[in-house]
Write a structure and sequence with these properties.
Layout (H helix, E strand, L loop, with lengths): L16 H12 L3 H9 L11 H6 L1 H4 L2 H25 L6 H25 L5 E2 L3 H5 L8 E5 L5 E2 L1 H16 L5 E7 L5 E6 L7 H7 L4 H6 L6 H12 L3 E3 L10 E3 L2
Parallel strand pairs: 2-4
Antiparallel strand pairs: 1-3, 4-5, 5-7, 6-7
Helix pairs in contact: 1-5, 2-5, 5-6, 6-8, 8-11
Length: 258
């Protein structure tokens, strides 16, 4: 299967009636989860929402239902800010200043939808070099840089989901901003290193990697859902996951086996 090109994806425009329909659904909370499943399939702005059978085929719906529900809540939250900005400014769209902000926010939301579709939906193969452009859509991209080291090769869909979710989790380790450095060894293993002031891995992740309970991790709610999600994805991919702990390293990288 060919890699998805960086420019491919749904047509996102304020003139598209489907765009406005999605904005209204997410903004007002009507049918958020069906719309979300629709987004995760990469077809949010291309056609009607899928029926129950189609939704069940999505990875999002095939994992632990509680984990899926938490992830749905988290994604809706992360989409809420740009959606709220767009809907608030739509009545003022004729004003040049408001239109400029609308255009910028629309681009931001489109990038976020594309990232979430690849990270949590039925993604295609992806070239390693296409990770960085996708991560520009991260909710924390305004304060965290994603520095992806040069490498070659294609990533299988499951690996794409795992690496993108792990990158988002690494960004959460930077409450004051900074950089997430992502590198890949020839054997396919990947290291993610958050660097910044007060950098600290999620306590939920640390507990899970130390043999902690997935039940307790899920009970922590949507704010902490990326840690159990990444662990679950690694297990599904058969990939080893761990922190490279060392007395000489204040902030250990997260290692994902090849």
């Amino acid at each position: 299967m060919p890699a998805r090109k960086g420019g491919d994806g749904p047509s996102w425009s304020l003139k598209n009636p489907a765009t406005l329909a999605v904005l209204g659904e997410v903004r007002h909370g009507h049918g958020c989860r069906p719309v979300l499943a629709w987004i995760l399939r990469g077809n949010a702005l291309l056609g009607p929402p899928p029926g129950p059978v189609q939704m069940e085929e999505n990875l999002f719906m095939s994992t632990d239902p509680r984990l899926a529900e938490l992830l749905a809540s988290r994604i809706c939250h992360d989409l809420g800010s740009p959606v709220a900005s767009i809907t608030a400014l739509l009545p003022q769209a004729a004003d040049p200043a408001a239109h400029e902000i609308l255009a910028e926010t629309t681009v931001e939301l489109g990038a976020r939808l594309k990232l979430f579709s690849a990270a949590f939906g039925a993604s295609d193969e992806l070239a390693w070099g296409d990770l960085a452009p996708l991560l520009l859509g991260a909710p924390m991209a305004h304060r965290v840089r994603f520095e992806v080291a040069e490498a070659v090769g294609q990533l299988q869909p499951g690996r794409v989901r795992l690496l993108l979710a792990a990158a988002l989790l690494a960004a959460e380790a930077l409450p004051r901003g900074g950089a997430v450095r992502i590198s890949r060894d020839p054997d396919g293993s990947v290291a993610l290193l958050p660097e910044g002031r007060d950098a600290q891995w999620s306590p939920t992740l640390v507990r899970l990697l130390s043999g902690g309970s997935m039940e307790m991790a899920i009970a922590e709610g949507p704010r902490r859902v990326l840690a159990p999600w990444v662990v679950a994805q690694a297990a599904a991919e058969g990939a080893e996951l761990g922190l490279a702990l060392s007395a000489a390293i204040a902030m250990p990288p997260l290692l994902i086996g090849g």
